[in-house]
Specification:
This protein is α/β, with parallel strands linked by helices. Helices cover about 35% and strands about 25% of the residues.
């Protein structure tokens, strides 16, 4: 019988203590297809750096971080870029390039990491916009969008590539019904989800029916609840 490959696996991953993660202990985490982990912490910057680590953007001193069985440190840059096309991420704050219009910002990760055509991506983004309550892809500059429309835009961007790993940061609880439907879709097709939250939001996190729940501190990850 063929072994199940974890979507994401952190194996004694050790980072520089002076980095944004600020860890004095290595990290270990194993997410199988269909799983959802809620990671709570008190420091937004540390949670953001943890998402960077999962995406292969943090240099390790020891250990490994593997995505879909691939060690981020061992794959060529071009292949790593293609793998990142399989990751959807919603940041805690609106993230984008200020000199590009909103539409280009939403399409850019897929334009950069995949070979999908812009027209194909636009059609997919438009369908997602309807799903999240917008009349179409947001236009104009990201900075000019209201907070709700900006968050909807970030959700469109995260789900555009049908991700196998979804990284959700704090504000992603907005537009609950549409979001939960999309999260369920990621899990149903064998992907995995990590929701990074501040400790004050733990009550809302029950909505995601997590299979793992842990707390991130400078001492690493500590399990705080049993599986759902």
């Amino acid at each position: 019988m063929r072994a199940v490959v974890p979507v994401l696996e952190l194996s004694m991953a050790e980072t520089d203590p002076a980095s944004a993660l600020g860890l004095s202990a290595p990290l270990s985490l194993r997410l199988l297809p269909g799983e959802c982990a809620v990671i709570e912490g008190a420091d937004t910057a540390q949670l953001e750096a943890f998402a960077d680590l999962c995406s292969g953007l943090v240099r390790l001193r020891a250990g490994q971080v593997r995505f879909l069985g691939h060690d981020w440190a061992a794959v060529p840059d071009e292949y790593a870029a293609a793998l990142r096309g399989r990751i959807g991420r919603v940041f805690a704050t609106v993230a984008g390039l200020p000199f590009l219009d909103a539409e280009t910002n939403l399409l850019l990760p897929q334009l950069h990491h995949t070979r999908r055509l812009r027209n194909e991506l636009r059609a997919r983004a438009t369908a997602l916009a309807y799903e999240f309550g917008l009349p179409g892809i947001p236009q104009g500059r990201l900075a000019d969008l209201g907070p709700d429309d900006a968050l909807r835009g970030m959700l469109i961007r995260a789900f555009l590539g049908e991700p196998m790993l979804l990284l959700l940061e704090e504000p992603a609880i907005g537009f609950r019904a549409a979001l939960l439907n999309r999260v369920a879709g990621v899990r149903d097709r064998g992907g995995a989800v990590i929701w990074l939250i501040r400790s004050r939001m733990t009550r809302d996190a029950d909505t995601f029916a997590a299979t793992q729940w842990a707390r991130l501190t400078d001492r690493g990850l500590t399990a705080v609840r049993s599986a759902a």
